[in-house]
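Data availability (excerpt). The following record was deposited with the supplementary files.
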Amino acid sequence: MKKRHLLAPGPTPVLPEALLAMARPIIYHRGPEYEALLARVREGLKILFQTKNEVLLFTSSGTGGMEGAVVNTLSPGDRALVIRGGKFGERWGEICEAYGVQAQYIDVEWGRAVEPDRVATALKADPTIKAVFATHSESSTGVLHDVEAIARIVRTTPAILVVDAITSLGVVDLPMDAWRVDVVVGGSQKSLMIPPGLALCGVSDKAWAMVERSRLPKFYFNFTAERKSLEKNQNAFTPAVSLVAALHESLAAIRAEGLPAVFSRHDRLARATRAGVRALGLELFAERPTPALTAVTVPQGIEASAIVKTLRTAHGITISGGQTKVKGRIFRLAHLGYADESDVIVCLSALERTLNDLGYPIKLGDGLRAVQEVLARAG
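Predicted structure:
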């Protein structure tokens, strides 16, 4: 028998309280019990997003929220600036192009973070740009982009800043109102510790003004209709009731731990993981790494697929390999959501044995020692 460990960047392990909530009998989504549940969830989401405004909730993957962010704020022929430095930055451009939005790109080498000055230069060169689309934590590369610096630039222009925070929300600080980020998109299957199926969209007053003028087609992902329903503690369409019940539990857990403690925990686990990886002689792929996951460059002489397969079959640990441009070049170790120190220790121990089994020259225990030293210093 092998105990299974899910250490991929999404979906992530589910909070036990959330599992129990989903096992309860279903309730009617137009009844008073659900309305009371949704009222509590609405308040919890405002705390998580650090916003005074309504956070919209849709039954979909996070990509649904991304699509909603495009079709509710822009009109045919509008110009948008897309920061493209990974698979999910590329997705912003693909959605824009699908709806006739003219996308202008800032291409960033995978593994590097965008230089905010490039955003400023692009906006100055083309003042007709209506929106800037960015990814906070690019899970395909392990990079954390400097959204705070980008927001300082965009907020001085008529454009809005739209951020994919699916892998950063609840991992690293993203105070939506304080930074004046206009649309923040989240998803349920990452740091929120519940299964995939809910998209979350925070919308600023500046973005709502653009929603009122938007002429792109929309039906299900209609921000105005959803906000109107939420104000009555309802959803515009039938929601994933059991997932909303699970979300209530995860928001309660985050609130009990406190956002600063949540961010500190993720930072501690990330630093410990990276120390362990470096102690094994491996290189980090990201120049500005996200606290959500660690992307590791595959060492010469070893196949990335062999590392992923051996960890899964021999040690019961599921991690992720690289995608598209970096397929075969990196592997990714997640430490977000329902994760603690024991997950990092188990992961690095198994990684040591995997590399040893595959013939890569390491000294067993070096990675674990480095992990323990970071955790011990953190208290």
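Summary of structural features: The first strand starts at residue 5 and ends at 6.
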